[in-house]
Design a protein that fits this description.
This protein is mostly helical and 261 residues long. The chain has one domain. Helices cover 52% and strands 0% of the residues. It contains eleven helices and no strands. Helix 1 packs antiparallel against helix 2 and helix 1 crosses helix 3. The radius of gyration is 18 Å and the shape is globular.
């Protein structure tokens, strides 16, 4: 069963506040993206492999707003550990709010995928889950725009960068539903597979980026849980590969290009 979800949130917040978790605007994009993956693996470890718990706990741990019981000092330290450049470098696609968008829609997609069984055998429908989560993200931004018009400038309004992070999170959460259903077949997921290509980010300048060897980031990665120790929610069913190809989401879609970045 592992730790209570609220305890996982608190532990993740403490993880973000640690000096070794800090990332700054001076750090390369690769470091920010590695930090996202490290955070996810820490969440999985704390949640004892419970993907749903890890998703919602990470979503809450990376909230860009100050918590009710969070001191200003703790808040600023936590913000310092949130990778603000993992999704973009400019004001629209970057920012400490983007990881929250990513994990929030990932959670929606994960649970929506598991809720839709077209086979009658407990198999998830990741295409359905991703579509639902992306729709939720779009609707939220539309409401933001309506609120902006009604209030004369507050809140921020529709953000293409928020939607791009939402879409990537939806793909991640949808694929995680397959991992939950059949971990032996689908194995582990690296969050960085779902993040934008650094070279296509608006504002990217290769001369400003230090490409450290992968070993540098691998040293910082937390230990992943053993897939064999994770509990299945359903008995795995051995479908032909064509079945999975039909339902798996397209990880390669670049949502930055989609929105004209």
């Amino acid at each position: 069963m592992g730790l209570d979800r609220d305890v996982v949130v608190e532990r993740l917040q403490e993880y973000l506040r640690q000096p070794q978790s800090a990332v700054t605007e001076a750090d390369a994009v690769a470091r920010h993206q590695a930090s996202i993956d490290n955070l996810w693996n820490e969440a999985l470890r704390l949640a004892d492999g419970d993907i749903g718990k890890a998703l919602t706990a990470t979503r809450d741990a990376v909230r860009s707003g100050q918590g009710d019981d969070e001191s200003r000092e703790d808040y600023e330290a936590r913000l310092g550990g949130i990778p603000s450049r993992a999704f973009g470098l400019d004001a629209e696609y970057g920012g400490v709010d983007k990881p929250q968008h990513f994990f929030a829609t990932a959670a929606v997609a994960f649970y929506a995928s598991l809720s839709q069984d077209d086979t009658g055998l407990g198999a998830p429908n990741p295409a359905y889950g991703a579509a639902i989560a992306k729709g939720v993200g779009e609707a939220y931004e539309a409401l933001d725009e309506i609120g902006k018009e009604a209030s004369g400038g507050n809140p921020t309004g529709y953000s293409r960068g928020d939607v791009a992070a939402d879409d990537r999170g939806a793909n991640f959460g949808a694929d995680l539903s397959l991992r939950e259903w059949d971990p032996e077949r689908f194995g582990e997921l690296d969050v960085r597979e779902f993040l934008p290509d650094r070279g296509k980010m608006p504002g990217f300048d290769a001369e400003d980026q230090i490409d450290y060897p992968d070993e540098v980031y691998e040293e910082e990665r937390t230990e992943r849980p053993d897939p064999d120790e994770l509990e299945d929610v359903n008995e795995p069913v051995d479908y032909p590969e064509e079945y999975y190809d039909e339902y798996r989401t397209d990880r390669t879609t670049d949502t930055t290009d989609k929105f004209g970045g």
